[in-house]
Design brief:
Elements: H1 5-11, E1 18-21, E2 25-29, E3 37-43, H2 58-75, E4 83-85, E5 101-105
Bound molecules: adenosine monophosphate and zinc ion (ZN).
Length: 114
């Protein structure tokens, strides 16, 4: 999608601090981190929200979690623990409408989240 911030990051039109890339997935550091490790893991396919998922997106979404596992190991937070979060819609705090998995680590993470 031409007017999507994260599609532009994938295309290299907007710079990012990339930490992982494969055929289907791109991951980069959040520009406003809320934890010492805060990485956004996104599908290269533009999907706006969880609500827009189609049955044939199941593998794409699963690939985000396989990437999260690899990145957590790469970042050295796999043993201590980390959180993955995907906000859906404005009430949940979604501000960029290209689905993204937040990977948060490096500090104690309270539950329930705010
Ligand atoms: P959400 O609120 O779940 O939609 O998350 C969107 C995230 O994208 C926020 O944590 C922002 O800090 C982050 N963000 C926005 N613009 C950029 C950017 N250009 N590069 C990296 N992260 C960004
Ligand atoms: Zn997009």
């Amino acid at each position: 999608m031409s007017d999507c911030l994260f599609c532009k990051i994938i295309a290299g039109e907007i710079p990012s601090d990339m930490v992982y890339e494969d055929d289907n997935v791109f991951a980069f550091r959040d520009i406003s981190p809320v934890a010492p490790t805060h990485i956004l893991i996104i599908p290269k396919k533009h999907i706006s929200t969880i609500n827009a998922l189609a049955p044939n997106d199941a593998e794409t979404m699963g690939n985000l979690f396989l990437a999260a596992k690899s990145i957590a190991k790469q970042e050295g937070c796999d043993e201590a623990g980390y959180r993955t979060v995907m906000n859906c819609g404005e009430a949940a705090g979604q501000t960029v409408f290209h689905v993204h998995l937040h990977l948060l680590a490096g500090r104690g993470l309270a539950w329930p989240p705010g």
